[in-house]
Write a structure and sequence with these properties.
This protein has two helices and six strands. With 92 residues, the chain is α+β, with helices and mostly antiparallel strands. The protein has one domain. Strand 2 and strand 3 form a beta hairpin.
Length: 92
Amino acid sequence: MDWPFDESPNVAVFTTRPVMCGESWIANVFHDEDDGGWQFHGVDPPEADAAMIVGLKRVLDLDPSIGELVDLPLGWQAWRVSRDAPWQRLQR
């Protein structure tokens, strides 16, 4: 499979321990306007002590559906109401 993102597979992204450990699924994605960074959060609001920085490839491997968000503009958010629901988009 070709790499879908403009960023490299090892670019650092923000996520949470519950997402990476499978205790939660990715419910919210943010593409930050100020620095182009990506954030992948679970169902519950993120807590500072559960924050993690991982490579983008690890998140895509965990949840291939985020590949649908490669064209999410800077400053936008995507969310879904369940693991299998379609992604919705909103400019922040």
